[in-house]
Amino acid sequence: MTNILRKTIAVLPGDGIGPEVTRAAVEILQDCAKAFGHHFEFREYSFGGAAIDACGAPLPKETLAGCRSADAILLGAIGGPKWEGLAFGTRPEAGLLDLRKELGLYINLRPIRLRPSLREISPLRPDRLEGADFEIVRELAGDVYFGKHELRGSGMEAEASDVAAYSAREVERVARYAFGRAAARRRKLTSVDKANVLATSTLWRDTVAALAREYPSVTVDHLYVDNAAMQILLRPAQFDVILTGNLFGDILSDEAAALAGSIGLIPSLSAGRPGQPALYEPIHGSAPTLAGKDVACPLGAIGSASLMLRESFGLAAESQWIEDAIDRVLARGYRTADIAERGKQVVRGSEFTAAIRHELRAASAGASPVSS
Ligand code: IPM
Ligand code: MN
Predict the structure, then answer these.
(1) Which residues are part of the catalytic machinery?
(2) 148-184 pLDDT, tens per residue?
(3) Which band of pLDDT confidence, cut at 50, 70 and 90, is reported for residue 72?
């Protein structure tokens, strides 16, 4: 019997397909609250391009304050062609980076799990996929993302620079998290850098190697990022937890998502100090061309809700209840367009969510109802 929890969730739908996939995730969380007797209060805030349109800035003060006072944050996606012409630092993306910075979110976890029914949509041959199940821990608050960006001059006189910087402290705090994840899984950590060229990577490697002494149960490998990109395609099963910097993590996680079959499938957790609210979002973008057509896959967002239940609220059974329902819906052959192999039944995004909710109801009908 789990405890009855009372939680406030800040919801930032954002742009493009953000609002529709977020709505799906909120519905699933509402179903969870009802089935298990929890009380989730949802507070919606404007963010990204939508906030630029509504109040002139991608991260309005009320949004930041709402996020700070919530127990967890659910984010859809931000950005789109409408705001691409805006000056650097005023675009929707700047709102996301500011939010990560303001909330001190230095950990980004991206689980790469291949769902059994979706093996066929992976571009890799089944024999190479065997046993592939890993997590990417991406540093989220430093690196070239947060150094000074400069663009000077014009035409052939133009010059640009982006400063990449890391401190040992920044590397160590995210590495500790990754070691902890690995210790609780298959006890293998692969740290990814470019230490043959970059000073930040040399610091990264030295810091991770020194910390490894505190985790004798975890085996540590160091790979250069170019090799890591290749290994993810050649032998994905060799990985358990991949730890890497902000830029490399951004790139490798899209590559790894392709292995799972679609970027639409992958959830993420962004966290800082324990006790601070964590943020959950699908790793896909706002996909402006799909927006409003009810074709987007809601699984990245629903997976993010499930991750929230497990990681922020300690509700492992509730999270599993959702994961199992997703697997059953996929096993029945339901697919959104992006994950449909030939001969499968393509349904709209909202129909896909409805099918999951149907499975959830069927699963709780057997269990004893919780009243509150
Ligand atoms: C991601 C996104 C963001 C990033 C963009 C939208 C700024 O690609 O979360 O992976 O680069 O971190
Ligand atoms: Mn990305």
Answers:
(1) 145, 194, 226, 250, 254
(2) 999 999 999 999 999 999 999 999 999 999 999 999 9
(3) very high
Res 66: pLDDT: 98
The closest ligand to the CA of 138 turns out to be 1
> What sections of 88-198 are H helices per DSSP?
92-102, 126-129, 168-183
Same domain, 223 and 314: no
The reported pTM is 0.96
DSSP code of 344? -
Residue 185 and residue 90 share a domain: no
Tell me the ligand closest to 254's alpha carbon: 2
Q: pLDDT per residue over 23-45, tens digit each?
A: 999 999 999 999 999 999 999 99
Query: Domain end: 219, 236, 265, which one?
Result: 265
In a domain, 82, yes or no: yes
- Ligand 2: centre distance to CA 301 (Å): 15
Could you tell me if 37 and 131 lie in one domain? no
Whole domain around residue 130: which residue ranges?
112-265
Q: Per DSSP, which regions of 157-235 are E strands? A: 159-162, 188-193, 219-224
pLDDT at 366 over 90: no
Ligand 1 lined by 250 (C-beta under 6 Å)? yes
**Any ligand 1 atom below 6 A from CB of 96:** yes
* Separation of CA 251 and ligand 2 centre (Å): 6
CA of 89 from ligand 1 middle (Å) equals 14
- In this structure, what CATH number is given to the domain that contains residue 246? 3.40.718.10
Say how far apart CA 181 and CA 189 lie, in whole Å.
9
Which residues share a beta bridge with 221?
190
Assess if residue 24 is contained within a domain. Answer: yes
Count of domains in the chain? 2
Express each pLDDT in 276-321 by its tens digit.
Answer: 999 999 999 999 999 999 999 999 999 999 999 999 999 999 999 9
b/e per residue, 317-354, with b = 16+ CB within 10 A? Answer: ebbebbbebbebbbeeebbbbbbbeeeeeebebbebbb
Q: Flag whether 79 is in a domain.
A: yes
Which of 106, 244, 248, 250 is the pocket-test mutation for ligand 1 (most atoms within 8 Å of CB)? 250
Do 256 and 363 have their domain in common?
A: no
Q: Whose CA is nearest to atom 8 of ligand 1?
A: 250
Residues 94 and 166 in one domain: no
Tell me which of 230, 265, 300 is where a domain ends.
265
Give the whole-angstrom CA distance, residue 273 versus residue 165. Answer: 21
| Residue 74 domain flag | yes
Distance 313 CA to ligand 2 centre (A): 26
